[in-house]
Amino acid sequence: MIPRSPTSNEDPSIPVLTERLPTPTATSTPPPSAAPPPEATAAPPGNADAQRAALAQLAVRLPATVEALAAQHVDAAIEGATERLAEQLRTTVAAAVRDSVRAALAEELERLRKAAAR
Q1: Can you say whether the dihedral through the CA atoms of 45, 47, 53, 56 is positive or negative?
Q2: What is the DSSP string of 6-68?
Q3: Least confident piece of the model among 25-34, 44-53, 65-74
Q4: Side-chain half-sphere of 79: how many Cα atoms within 13 Å?
Q5: Backbone angles phi, psi at 17, to 5 degrees
Q6: Distance from C-alpha of 73 to C-alpha of 67, rounded to nearest angstrom
Q7: Distance between CA atoms of residues 92 and 99, nearest Å
Q8: How far apart are CA 47 and CA 70, in angstroms?
Q9: What pLDDT does residue 48 have?
Q10: Phi, psi of 60 (to 5 degrees)
Q11: Which terminus of the chain, N or C, has fewer Cβ atoms within 10 Å?
Q12: DSSP structural state of residue 1
């Protein structure tokens, strides 16, 4: 750390960064890449048949697996939507019944008031 002399507008109790970091140069080592070099990923020639066989098995099983996963997600989505719709219907029907009963009672009370006034 390089000592510093405080000036009139600096508080000596506040630390100041004095370390200097070296800047990268053109000769410095580049950062490692995320992908391994192509020669590291190339399969040995004897494994080509094994790779083809594995890919063929995967191609056979993949459609059924994807279909099963899709069916599970679709079933869950439909079930959730049905539950939400049922709750909305309950709320709407309950409000409609309350409004209908309220209107019928108001009509009946009005009819009874008119009959009592005669």
Answers
A1: negative
A2: --TTS-TTS------PPPP-TTSPPPPPSSPPHHHHPPPGGGHHHHHHHHHHHHHHHHHHHHH
A3: 25-34
A4: 6
A5: -70, 120
A6: 10
A7: 11
A8: 33
A9: 85
A10: -75, -45
A11: C
A12: -
With contact defined as beta carbons under 8 Å apart, do 25 and 7 qualify?
Answer: no
Tokens matching residue 49? 């048949």
pTM (2 d.p.): 0.41
* Cβ–Cβ under 8 Å, residues 2 and 18: yes
Residue 19 φ then ψ, to 5°: -75, 135
Say if residues 82 and 88 touch (Cβ distance below 8 Å). no
Neighbours of 20 (CB within 10 A): 7
User: How far from 63 is each of 54, 58, 85, CA to CA, in Å?
Assistant: 15, 9, 32
Sign, Cα dihedral of 81, 82, 83, 89: positive
Cβ(2)–Cβ(16) under 8 Å? Answer: no
- Position of tokens 């409000």? 95
Convert the pLDDT of each residue in 34-64 to its tens digit.
555 555 555 566 688 888 888 999 999 999 9
